[in-house]
Amino acid sequence: MVQERPVRVERKLSAILAADVAGYSRLMHNDEEATHAKMTALLTDAVAPAIGEHGGRIVKKHWRWVLAEFPSAVEAVRAALQFQRRITNLTNGDVQDRRIAFRVGINIGDVIVEPHDIFGDGVTLRRGLRA
After folding, report:
1. Helix, strand, or coil (residue 86)
2. What is the model's pTM?
3. How far is CA 106 from CA 9, 21, 64, 68, 75, in A?
4. DSSP-assigned states of every residue in 43-105
5. CB neighbourhood size of 102 (10 A)
6. pLDDT in tens, 73-129
7. Who's near 2: CB < 8 A, 6+ residues apart?
8. What is the three-class DSSP state of 111?
9. In the predicted model, is pLDDT for residue 7 greater than 70?
């Protein structure tokens, strides 16, 4: 049996920011507890505040990645630059092979909006973040 479509799905044009940690598996392999503690601090002290200050909202997060939605691509870029600078300052004294660095992708697209999530091709960043 074919399921009927809902009468109306809420959609909007959004700027989507996806950020993940380069070398996360290696970092966790080398020192899980230190990596976990540092990631928690960076998400709390750098990433989340920058997203909020630039009008974005975190839609999903995991210890290795963050997905955020913005009403403006310019503000998404500004947020990314702000938290990248802050992370660089906070990790400047760390040994290179233990330094946490985020990769960021930004896409503009039409998304399906739900209270605690977003869906659609606009959310798919073509996995350019993977290395």
Report:
1. helix
2. 0.85
3. 24, 15, 17, 10, 11
4. IIIIIHHHHHHTT-EEEEEETTEEEEEES-HHHHHHHHHHHHHHHHHHHTTS-GGG---EEEE
5. 21
6. 999 999 999 999 999 999 999 998 889 999 999 999 999 988 888 988 888 765 444
7. none
8. strand
9. no
